[in-house]
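Handout, section 4.2: multi-component inputs.
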Amino acid sequence: MAETTAVTSVGPAWALAAAATLGALVILAAAFQGLLTARSQGATGGITRPFGEAARLMRQRRRTTVSADGLLWRIGSSGLLVAALLMVAVVPLGEWTIFDLDVGVMWFNAMDVLVWALIWLTGWGANSAHSLIGGYRFLAHGLGYELPLMFALVAPAIAASSLNVGDVAAAQEGLWFAVWMPVAFLAYCLGVVAFSVWGPFEPAIGSDLGGGVRAELSGVDRLVFELGRYALLAAGAAFAVPMFLGGGSGPLLAGWVWVLIKAAVLLGVFVWGRRRLPAFRPDKFLEVGWLVLLPAVLLQDLIVAVVSVWRT
Amino acid sequence: MIADIAFWAIGAVAVLAGAAVFYVDSMARATYALAVSFIAVGFQLLFLQQNYVGVVTVLMMVMEMAIMAVYMVMFMGMNPALMPMSMVHDNKKSLAVAIGTFAFLAAGVLLIDWPARRGAPPADVTSALGEALMGPKMLVMAVISPVMVATIVAGVVLAAHRTRYDRFGDDLKRRPAEDPQPGGIGR
Amino acid sequence: MGVGDAIARLAASHVHVLVVEVPHHWRLRTEVERHVLARNWVLATSPADADVMAVCGEPGKQLSEALAMVWHQLPGPRVRLDVRTDDDISSRLDQAHAALLDSGLHRQDARNRPAAADLLGGQDHDSMDHDSMDHDSMDHDGHGSMEMSPGGIPLAEGGEDRDGLEMDVLHLPLGPILAHWPAGLVLRCALQGDVIVEAKAEVLDQPGGHQPTKHQDAEPALVAARRCDNIATLLALAGWDDAAAQARIIRDEVLTLPPTAGGSSSVEGLAKLHRKVRRSRLLRWSLRGVGSFGSDQIEHQGLPAEAAGDTYDRLLRMFERAHRDLSGDQPGHPDPVLLSPSRLPTLVTGLDLATARLVIASLDLHELTSEHANHEMAHG
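Output:
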């Protein structure tokens, strides 16, 4: 497609600004999480939790285990942040984006599959039974959520006839995709929560395994791992905005403000939902993913395809 | 110019990572060296203006390596990654075959002329390709996919150790099914 | 240095505490937990996550050895806290806080820590087959001069698993220092993947034929609080943090408020939580079918009658019994659950780690006794 797209590419020099925006969303999510945790335990405060935890982890020493596979371990734990930053590189903030890739949707998908490798590597590298079992629990969840997520990303692309994220955002004039593709939106949200190892998908880092994948992480490694998790959640929430929530459209305020507001609201919903839902057991979730979610999302794709053909 | 240098550098990474698969002594490292090699090839495709193919290559290959990790534990008898083990066997024979194949293919690449182009590519390559596939070949496309899926499913069912009589009893009436690991739907 | 001190102060306001419970000191552990959470500190799930290790009670010999091993695994800055009585927990935690701020102390501690080779040195003598082992070559990344034991730890042997594949068998001891785990219990599992194929249970520092200290826990209120604690544990293991936190709050209310004043609000709180848990279809789906015990199994293995059904049934029954104890409907017989650790292996064999932990938590254990005392508990 040689025609111009709705967003302008500002080039990689603005990557720092994108990282800063992602960082702001991460701090927001962590502060909200701290507030909810404190409130549920009957204590006050908790808003300063992100800063306190960061300070504590920076002060803590790193550690290693016997015969740990150091290279793979550190790649795994630090790669999550990199994957999140790469994801955010294709999300348009209003009318600016860093990479106006014509296959932006696929790029997001490829980055979230990287998380599969990274979490398993973190679990493997520590040479610890608990962290390895956590890594395999994540893969079990992954087998359940990934295909529904992929097919859910196909639905907006079909409706917009393009894999470019800016085009998908522009194609939602009038009616947001989340309204008439609810199953795809739900599968997408489930996928975002799952690849951030968040909420009901936390058995991989569960307390019954002594922290699972992060059982042996401490200090800076743990800080980068946690930042990576929150950053993935924020990047997923931010990506939902052009895909399902109309991009920067909205009255009164500028496009980029609306993108941030919508991303923050979705992120807030994810954080709020975490403490209220029990965990999905990986062995049980696998059947749900393949026998319930996948057919539902495929049906949704069929409906979207029929509607798109009928519209043109 | 920079794009050329980047292309060749990434190519070198791909080859070196591929060689590393045989050189490292740990299954996990071999698996992920292979993943790095494939990711490098995927990025090279981006330089060739094949964005979709490049990104999909990265996606598929990383997922495959992660699944390979699952099989690694399922089927490897000995602890696969900590015990330093050699990743190669039948060294002399495979080296001979590899060098022979490379020589043959390189000779073909260098000696055979590039074919002359007939006509020009259409303005919209993607939709032309789509119409070519979906037009006269539509029936084939629509039939092949279900047949492939049915074959895979049939193969797994035939190879499975437990049949439905094991799960539901001889009269196929026992519910819930007797499974060592029950699933989440209760089928 | 200003920045360093500021960071230290900020860090010390969010301490992670690893709370270790010595058997028979349950009340002390609840008090420590309550104080930790009231300060907005966090209960750590693993030694790598912890700044402070709080030992509640006087540990016996075996538990002290385990504690020493875990102490080595805490990265710095670290503080060890031995809590013996519940009088001064708050001031002890303040002391720990102050100790954490003292960077000089931690630098000294870091310099004095033993090297990995010293820690591993005691373990390799019985696991080496070959006499020509070169001990000096044992370093962190295990460069393969070890024949069968990289880093001094022997490799797992293969064995056939339940599907007929050959998989490595890993010997993993669970406990005694593990989050949401009965105090002092060590479950030595043989794992294939994460499925337990064999297990052996014991309680540390328990001489054979030991009679359980007769129950200071016999009051209904204390038994009810214990049950609330077990409910919180099970809900936390099921991944439902909010409900677990609520159960913990109810437990603290029952323990700290006098029975007349606190009674009605805890009963209400418990009823509310019970309704919430009953309404949650997700929790029911998650816990259904986990560890189902039929009545013949109950008799055969000498379990209490309340353990019939699956984990979800046992969870609901825990609520009912806690309610009954709190409201004092049946005065005189609070009926705490005592179980011998030798019963546990049959319960968990064949389950994977997550379900095994759910099953153990759902048994509503008040105490793990030795075999002798088990005969007294003939519930039918």
